[in-house]
């Protein structure tokens, strides 16, 4: 049995152990000592079910399992491949449970199934029971976070405080009632940190999440920057000793020998040398879920060193009619790159032009652009570079970060979109990202072995 297989076999039991023994405190042997503002980390794990759809070869390329992916109905490419999830404990007393939640940095609400659930999706452990958690409080119906009342009505304190959370790409949504609850995370120095006053959405009804849950996930952790997201909450109050404006992650390749790492907050964010940074856009826009994502100014793309022309405007967020549209955001909750159509076409043309001397056969496949694989092709796949507003902020994407193997084909793992560009998880692997939400900047630097972020635990 190779290392890879052994590691894969280890992973789910590890996740399940965390779920089934909620009392076990996650010890962070390597927590970087902080300057006193407080810090803690959530375990970041590949989403359950990923091993049915992908594996990573020794060459570092992601291979999609053709049968698993073509069996998806409807085929939703953005959902195929490496998703990452976060492990967190919710509630207090007899109600405390540990759940795995899908990470989504484009929305601003943590939601999960709560009993009673109409048409539940399967999850592990069973859905949260508010009645058993003494810290659970429903928000009053006139709270600012509730959905606005229908025309001609006014919500009163007694009304349920409703929410409707929709993914930026529209692939899943959930409805329910907002409440106030306590979460618990591992802190550096081996204790659990409790964070009170976190707004969570209790859903009794959701759409499109069944497939994503893989029988394990309980909901979504929305880590967008706007209220009432977790990072917003942490920045507002002093939750015990913790007041936090920064978070960080380093996504390990799914094929590396230790798959999990940490979503680190505050003082748990390690010091990393030589980071470059770019501005988070629309920091002044304080309302509207559409601005919760981490938009950046992507100003250039080059393929094998050649810049694509007239591309900057295509990534700009702008008003179209009454609505804001387009723009480019970072999201570790989107498996692979999504690109607005006109920009995608330029990228595709440049890739085809670069590979043309090899006389390759273009085939239809899982993605829009696929080639029949040859040994020559593997060696000639181009490196793509993303250039951000500031001169030194560049994200270099070696072929392993942008191309996937699907059966006998090699595909450009970029999904076409009518309205958005997202730099997804696959492009962020093996890099340290730090989001400084207070100062409105994203920092990043290569980090060779993100799996080393797992510290000493197993
Ligand atoms: C994926 O993981 C599950 C849970 O550990 C395991 O039962 C299953 O056999 C794995 N599938 C593959 C293809 O490795
Ligand atoms: C949630 O509860 C905490 C503590 O009880 C309180 O300070 C906070 O204002 C509440 N949050 C909301 C949104 O009502």
TrEMBL record:
<keyword id="KW-0645">Protease</keyword>
<dbReference type="Pfam" id="PF14543">
    <property type="entry name" value="TAXi_N"/>
</dbReference>
<dbReference type="InterPro" id="IPR032861">
    <property type="entry name" value="TAXi_N"/>
</dbReference>
<feature type="domain" description="Peptidase A1">
    <location>
        <begin position="84"/>
        <end position="445"/>
    </location>
</feature>
<dbReference type="InterPro" id="IPR021109">
    <property type="entry name" value="Peptidase_aspartic_dom_sf"/>
</dbReference>
<keyword id="KW-0378">Hydrolase</keyword>
<dbReference type="GO" id="GO:0006508">
    <property type="term" value="P:proteolysis"/>
</dbReference>
<comment type="similarity">
    <text>Belongs to the peptidase A1 family.</text>
</comment>
<dbReference type="Pfam" id="PF14541">
    <property type="entry name" value="TAXi_C"/>
</dbReference>
<keyword id="KW-0732">Signal</keyword>
<dbReference type="InterPro" id="IPR032799">
    <property type="entry name" value="TAXi_C"/>
</dbReference>
<dbReference type="InterPro" id="IPR051708">
    <property type="entry name" value="Plant_Aspart_Prot_A1"/>
</dbReference>
<dbReference type="InterPro" id="IPR033121">
    <property type="entry name" value="PEPTIDASE_A1"/>
</dbReference>
<protein>
    <recommendedName>
        <fullName>Peptidase A1 domain-containing protein</fullName>
    </recommendedName>
</protein>
<dbReference type="GO" id="GO:0008233">
    <property type="term" value="F:peptidase activity"/>
</dbReference>
<feature type="signal peptide">
    <location>
        <begin position="1"/>
        <end position="17"/>
    </location>
</feature>
């Amino acid at each position: 049995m190779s290392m890879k297989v052994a590691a894969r076999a280890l992973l789910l039991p590890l996740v399940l152990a965390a779920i089934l023994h909620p009392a076990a405190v996650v010890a962070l042997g390597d927590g970087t000592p902080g300057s006193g503002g407080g810090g803690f980390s959530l375990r970041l794990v590949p989403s359950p079910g990923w091993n049915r759809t992908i594996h990573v070869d020794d060459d570092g390329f992601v291979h999609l399992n053709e049968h698993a992916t073509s069996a998806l109905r409807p085929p939703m490419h953005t959902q195929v491949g490496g998703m990452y999830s976060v492990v967190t404990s919710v509630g207090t007393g007899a109600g405390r449970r540990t759940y795995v939640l899908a990470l989504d940095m484009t929305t601003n609400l943590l939601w999960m199934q709560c009993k009673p659930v109409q048409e539940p999706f399967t999850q592990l452990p069973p859905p949260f029971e508010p009645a058993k958690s003494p810290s659970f409080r429903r928000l009053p119906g006139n709270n600012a976070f509730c959905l606005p009342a229908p025309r001609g009505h006014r919500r009163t304190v007694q009304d349920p405080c409703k929410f409707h959370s929709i993914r930026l790409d529209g692939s899943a949504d959930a409805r329910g009632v907002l409440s106030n609850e306590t979460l618990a995370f591992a802190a550096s120095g081996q204790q659990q940190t409790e964070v009170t006053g976190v707004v969570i959405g209790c859903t009794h009804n959701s759409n499109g999440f069944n497939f994503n849950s893989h029988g394990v996930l309980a909901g979504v952790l929305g880590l967008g920057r706007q209220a009432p997201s977790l990072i917003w909450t942490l920045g507002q109050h002093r939750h015990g000793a913790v007041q936090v404006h920064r978070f960080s992650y380093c996504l390990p390749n799914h094929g590396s020998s230790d798959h999990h790492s940490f979503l680190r907050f505050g003082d748990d964010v390690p010091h990393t040398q030589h980071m470059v940074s770019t501005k988070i856009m629309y920091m002044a826009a304080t309302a509207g879920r559409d601005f919760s994502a981490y938009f950046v100014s992507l100003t250039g793309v080059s393929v094998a060193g050649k810049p694509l022309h007239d591309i900057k405007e295509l990534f700009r967020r702008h008003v179209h009619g009454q609505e804001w549209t387009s723009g480019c955001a970072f999201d570790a909750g989107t498996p692979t790159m999504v690109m607005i159509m006109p920009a995608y076409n330029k990228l595709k043309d440049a890739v085809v032009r670069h590979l043309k001397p090899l006389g390759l056969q273009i085939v239809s496949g899982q993605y829009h652009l696929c080639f029949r694989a040859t040994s020559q092709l593997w060696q000639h796949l181009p490196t793509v570079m993303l250039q951000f507003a500031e001169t030194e902020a560049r994200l270099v994407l070696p072929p392993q970060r942008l191309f996937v193997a699907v059966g006998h084909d090699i595909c450009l793992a970029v999904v076409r979109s009518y309205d958005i560009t997202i730099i997804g998880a696959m492009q962020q692997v093996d890099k340290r990202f730090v989001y400084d939400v207070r100062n409105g900047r994203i920092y990043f630097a290569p980090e060779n072995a993100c799996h080393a972020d797992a510290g000493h635990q197993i």
